[in-house]
Design a protein that fits this description.
The chain has about 140 residues and is mainly alpha-helical. The protein is built from six helices and two strands. It has a two-stranded antiparallel ribbon with strand order 1-2. β1 and β2 form a beta hairpin. It is globular, with a radius of gyration of 21 Å.
């Protein structure tokens, strides 16, 4: 993993997320970030730039949706290669769509619908817990 030459300027009108995204896109397009090269973790890059971690996370999300980088699970994120992009594009983009698209989320939503009834039970559990606490006083 090379040291990224990314800088943010808080006085510019563009958001910090946009600045990071544009700079990493430029590094990938010029070849300064080679295909297959690992990107720094969200925390590492955020600390080095002095920004919040969610700023870097959103930037990485934009790059992943633009298929410039790919997630490697717990290993981190890697620059998507041109050759691996074509051979693995069908599988990777399918995985990307199912991971971030509506279809796989719909399954999660079904579960969350069940979970919403669970939330009600959690709320009632919270009320019951509060009721018990007040009874024990």
């Amino acid at each position: 993993m090379s040291k990224l030459k990314v800088r943010v300027n808080r006085t510019r009108p563009e958001s910090l997320t946009r600045q990071i995204t544009d700079q990493i896109t430029g590094l990938i397009s010029t070849g300064a970030l080679a295909a297959g090269e690992m990107l720094p973790s969200e925390r590492t890059l955020a600390d080095s730039l002095g920004v919040a971690r969610n700023v870097v996370r959103r930037s990485y999300d934009y790059l992943m949706s633009g298929e410039l980088i790919q997630g490697e699970g717990r290993l981190g994120r890697r620059v998507r290669g041109a050759s691996s992009g074509k051979s693995g594009a069908a599988g990777s983009s399918k995985r990307g769509k199912s991971a971030s698209g509506k279809k796989s989320s719909a399954g999660g939503r079904k579960g969350s619908k069940k979970g919403s009834s669970g939330k009600g039970s959690r709320k009632s559990g919270g009320k019951a817990a509060r009721g018990r606490a007040s009874k024990s006083r």
